[in-house]
Amino acid sequence: MRYRDDVYLAISVLINGMATYFALFIAPAEVEMGELVRIFYFHLPPALVCYLTVAVSMISGVLFLVKNDAMYDAISESAALLGLVYGVVTLVGGAIWANATWGVYWNWDPRETTTLILWIAYIGYFFLRMSVENPERRASVAAAYNVLAFLTMPLSYLSFILWPSLHPRLSEGGGLGLTAPMVQALVLNIVGGVIMYVWLLRKAYEVRIKRDGLAQLISEEVSHAG
Questions:
Q1: CA 207 to chain centre
Q2: Torsion from C-alpha of 123, 126, 128, 129, nearest 10 degrees
């Protein structure tokens, strides 16, 4: 069946609308946090998608090194760009959560700090790309750097296990006790977030391909003019 962008987007919006409704109106308040727990449904999914998209970026970069196919470099850069976007959403959501639960927006908690390190690492990825003019060398250097930058992802994920942290855990005695409706709301928001991410990745990839085509056209015009 042929891919329909409008149909996919409509399904994504429908699922995310349902997820939002569940998070705001169906899921009950948490025993200790009360209504503030609703922030959690809009904080965890972007964090998970941030981890997902940097993994996609790293894997695509490795595939470029193996196959030398520019398509993989385009996917890698597009995914890394979304990693920055979702990283900002995660950091802002985490700051709002921290202020609601701890009374301060930033306290250098291990999860906050390592997530910021991850985000800075991928800022470096784009600065590196901008510093190399040759397209093929740019893709190779960026892919190699991407593997190193990706190491910040497991560091961020495991941070509250490796070091003392106030960050809540989804386990017995670890912080949040989720009831069945709360789990349903969380799962819906995660699924909706991943579905929307796939659409955004496709759009980012298309923009990158159009940009490459325009750059090649300009280069050819300049060559003919010379």
A1: 18
A2: 170
